[in-house]
């Protein structure tokens, strides 16, 4: 009987440790600063792709032409 009690106490202690580890991992994954840093990194990586860079440059050039046309007419 005493062996069963000790085994149950050990299982409870292990379950507590596992739960604490899980909660720590969830807290790290849900950290707002980390989420913001990840989003910033992904956005910068996307903006550095050649297709995106050329598209942005093209749109900028088009806007510039339209503004110059509007001013001169």
Quick summary of this structure?
The protein has 73 residues and is mainly α. It has helices at 2-29, 32-47, 50-72.
Descriptive overview:
Keywords: Membrane, Transmembrane, Transmembrane helix. InterPro entries: DUF3618 (IPR022062). There is one protein chain. The chain has 73 residues and is an all-alpha fold. It contains three helices and no strands. The chain has helices at 2-29, 32-47, 50-72.
Judging from the principal axes of the Cα atoms, what is the shape? rod-shaped
What is the chains' assembly state?
single chain
Q: Major beta sheet, specifics?
A: none
Q: Decide which structural class fits the backbone.
A: mainly alpha
**SS summary, helix count:** 3
Gyration radius (Cα, Å) is 29 Å
Beta-strand percent range: under 5%
Low-confidence stretches: none
Protein name: DUF3618 domain-containing protein
Keywords: Membrane, Transmembrane, Transmembrane helix
Transmembrane segments: 51-68
Pfam families: DUF3618 (PF12277)
């Amino acid at each position: 009987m005493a062996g069963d009690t000790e085994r149950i106490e050990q299982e409870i202690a292990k379950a507590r440790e596992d739960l604490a580890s899980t909660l720590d991992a969830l807290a790290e994954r849900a950290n707002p600063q980390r989420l913001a840093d990840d989003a910033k990194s992904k956005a910068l990586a996307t903006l550095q792709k050649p297709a995106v860079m050329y598209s942005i440059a093209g749109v900028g050039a088009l806007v510039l032409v339209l503004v110059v046309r509007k001013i001169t007419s």
